[in-house]
Amino acid sequence: QVQLVESGGGLVQAGGSLRLSCAASGSFFSINNMRWYRQAPGKQRELVAIITRDGRTNYEDFAKGRFTISRDNAKNTVYLRMNSLKPEDTAVYFCYVDSVTISGSLGVWGQGTLVTVSS
To answer: What is the rounded average pLDDT of the residues 37-53?
Structure first.
């Protein structure tokens, strides 16, 4: 079993910053790719960014230049630093990890953390 605990969401004014964290715990051999998704009210969940185990990153266009994904492999934690936030960034943010367990590969979702950006 792999559990993810997210933190760092909240209310921020437009132009502000937040840092989200997602920590994995439980029984697994490794955590490989780690991703952040978001889901705005009434919209489909969308990918924000991805980071590989060796630190390579990729961002969706809306996140480029404003968001930074990073990870600490020793802590099995992924971060999302969000700068210059806009009201349209308001969403529930979810982390998703690709883990390797005794049962094989397992994709796991976090519970989500709400980010609200006021204008």
So the answer is: 97
C-alpha 116/C-alpha 92 separation (Å) is 8
Per-residue pLDDT at 49 exceeds 90 = yes
Residue 89 vs residues 25, 41, 64, 93, 104: alpha-carbon distances, Å: 28, 11, 13, 10, 35
Tokens for 20?
């989200």
Which string of b and e fits 16-25 if b means at least 16 CB within 10 Å? Answer: eebebbbbbe
Q: Left if phi > 0, otherwise alpha if psi is -120 to 50, otherwise beta: which for 96? A: beta
Q: Which residues contact 106 (CB under 8 A, 6 or more apart)?
A: 2, 28, 98, 99, 100
pLDDT of residue 38: 98
CB 5 within 8 A of CB 22: yes
Q: Are 61 and 8 in contact (CB under 8 A)?
A: no
Nearest by Cα to 59 from 70, 47, 71: 47
- Tell me the pLDDT tens digit for each residue of 70-107: 999 999 999 999 999 999 999 999 999 999 999 999 99
